[in-house]
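User: Predict structure, ligand zinc ion.
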Amino acid sequence: MRTILSCLLLQACSLAVTAQPVPAPQGGGSYRTEALPCLLPADYQRINSMLEKNIAQLKAEGKLAADWGTSQPADAKPTAGTFIWPLRQEPGFSYNSYYGISNYVDLDPLYPNQVKDWNCGARTYDQASGYNHQGVDIFLWPFSQQMQENQQVAIVAAADGVIIGKDDGNPDHSCALNNAAWNAVYIGNSDGTICWYGHMKTGSQTAKGPGQSVVAGEFLGYVGSSGNSTGPHLHFETHTGSGDILDPFVGPCRPGASLWANQKPYIEPTINTLMTHGHAPVFPDCPQLETINAQSLFHPGDTLFAAAYYHDQNPASPSIYTLYRPDNSVFQTWTHSSPQYYNASYWYWYWKVGASWPSGDWRFEVSYEGHTVNHVFKVEAGSGIARINAGSDALVIVPNPNHGIFTIEGLASQLETLSYRVTNVAGRTVATGHIAKGSGRVALAQQQPKGIYILQLDEAKGHRSYLRFLIR
Ligand SMILES: [Zn+2]
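Assistant: Predicted complex:
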């Protein structure tokens, strides 16, 4: 699987702030996937021979039944309706959805450019070398590198079974075809079929080893980009006990029974998440981490970016976007449709937060395909609260009043609590206190005259720094 992030619109990369949003998105793009063999013939040879050896040994040790995988003829039907979805979002993360599908199994044995997936579509690929894609590629979206880094999405067993092999210790930040080995867990399911879970993050696998049982839904490892891969995704491949490829999906071009307990639709138009950002999200080249610029607290003068992230966005289906004020009145509503189908896409709009915006919990809501997703963000405005705008030279407190709680942009990501002292040009201390970890907040209890002030910052380990700011 190969992923490319593209800017769709000329204005997409412009950060110019306009007073009023326009119906067209002010930024966005797609996350395209391209064909790349997840496994090469040499990989299949190595993995199959490892598994064959392991299975024989596990049978000899009594950890696998002697007739496991052989009790069925090669064309026997595996147990239908047992597979659960092999990915799970970890606690603490709350995306509405976190993946998209880029490729299914290529059921057409001919090649090249002769492909057919279970729905008789071309959502798969083959290669001139004779490779027909043999698994399902499920990629992470949005911010897949961050999701890998933060272990946001776990790979879980699709069915009960016994671990029959593991590969680990291989680099997990692949961005291209590199002939590298992957990290994977291989499970012999109770019904004699075998599932491969590939491209895992290095060192993230379950401590269980070959011969140990797992149950459906049990943690196996985290999604990574090891082996032939250009971005974090799971390659999920199913074999019969005799080694034939099995497509777990059923449809017009794959008759029989689905192996899934709940087979997902071929195309699944879904909002993956809504976010607000202080700056546009940045998607650098693989494997660099994306800069999400997530922000849920805004002050007058800030720029509010409201973004929606989709998989399988259907161009025929418009989304209704609404920003609600804290009293539930509509601040603005608009509709948008994707100009074409993408398996992953995002769109954003932005506003300058005005001094008249009421304080409280605002809501960004999008209705799409019969589902509504919400994201709450906070606006803090009104008396006594302003912001020190980070500047290259002086920090300027705007707007007035010039006392209250001030947030210093560059300090919002501080790692420890800082103590501070504010002095005026005469050297007189006008405020002291502590800036809580990650808050960037400084309090000026009393109104101060216009002029230049010095903010002294002291870290626990003794490092001292100064920032100059202007009250005007
Ligand atoms: Zn694959």
